[in-house]
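Last lecture ended with a question: if I hand you only a sequence, what can you say about the shape of the protein? Today we answer it with a concrete record. The protein is Ent-kaurenoic acid oxidase. Below, first the input exactly as provided, then the predicted structure, then a couple of comments.
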Amino acid sequence: MVIDAIVRRAHGWAREASLGAKRRAQLPPGDMGWPVVGAMWAFLWAFKSGNPNSFIGSFIRRYGRTGMYRAFMFSSPTILVTTPDACKRVLMDDENFVEGWPKATVELIGRKSFLTVHHEEHRRLRKLTAAPINGFDALSMYLGFIDRTVAESLRRWSDAGEIEFLTEMRRMTFRIIVQIFLTAADDETMLALERSYTDLNHGVRAMAINLPGFAFHKAFKARKKLVSVLQGLLNKRRVEWAKGLSRSSTDMMDRLIEAEDEHGRRLDDEEIVDILVMYLNAGHESSAHVSMWATIFLQENPEIFAKAKAEQEEIIQSIPKTQKGINLRDFRKMEYLSQVIDETLRFVNISFVSFREAAKDVFVNDYLIPKGWKVQLWSRSVHMDPEVYPDPKKFNPSRWENYSARAGTFLPFGLGTRLCPGNDLAKLEISVFLHHFLLGYKLTRTNPCCRIRYLPHPRPVDNCLAKITRVCD
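The predicted structure:
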């Protein structure tokens, strides 16, 4: 214990000495832990032991409910922010805070993706890609393929017997996102992309140790393969454009190639590839996990299931006989289903933390965040705060009825100018899946009490081994 205290104090002094006595006294409570690892061991232990809330809980136990704590995370001095008001302040303040993702995330997702570029470039990229991703015409075009793919997948799963539900969901959502972004991708390309993404995803929140045996090393090799495949497709597409060859349909890659800002500037190859890497990763991982958990919660709560199903039946009955499938107007009628999805996002916390960096010395809640220090916004702590969400460990979609979350209290897609640009597409995809499931299927889990693994995303360790049963046509 004495050695531990000495080492921690020495490490803290080394990291904070340059601030001077006055500025050090203005820091939030906390400590830097041991050199190199800091609080990473405690973080990994909490999440891998099945009790992720214990990580922030340990700071609360030692230092009280101050809402902000200092630590050493991902090789950097870091301020942990755990309350709605403080999260809102940081996320909405583009002047004092810039993106601050860990080195592993930046290297794997890409230096020119939305995650890493600074304000002006982020604004430009967001403007260029807004219509191709979330625009009305784009969503209308994507909806038909999503609808057909979900219906076909559920039929196939119901005939297959026992399946790994999450694995199949990931394959389905990956197929959807690849079709949206790369219409012409063949099965071989699809398989190569999926394998690379699986390996890449496991390294996104790892320490950036590029040595054999570490998650980042395997993930970094996967990124190289991924970039090679995407660059090859992009080269082929640019040749087609140069020759004036027309295509039967326009996908996301086409839209990114032709996107042009008010100054006539277009996206370069690295920007296009990194944007695709970011969206292909987030677009299928998050949607698959949220869809799986929402399905589980619906099946475990018969009253919620019945209410959600009744809404979908009412929507189906209102569709004209001449209309094939659902459209965006029908999607926007799914009010209760939207509440189910929001509650799933709050309850599960697929993205439990986001990252910023202080561009200058700034005070938040009377605590100093020094220039250059990283800031972690712990949305998990916000979403499970009983003062914000009464009885937070209860799955209760009705809490969202006639309720508009105060800024900073609901953060699954972020906040402010960095709000996830694909949130509308993700919610559309999840809604269409749940629409079909509610109307015609049920889920029976093989191991309903299966242990949960929390990194990189919360999931049952058996990937939700289950049977999908068709109950009606």
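Comments.
1. The longest strand covers residues 68-73.
2. Residues 2-470 form a domain with the Cytochrome p450 fold (CATH 1.10.630.10).
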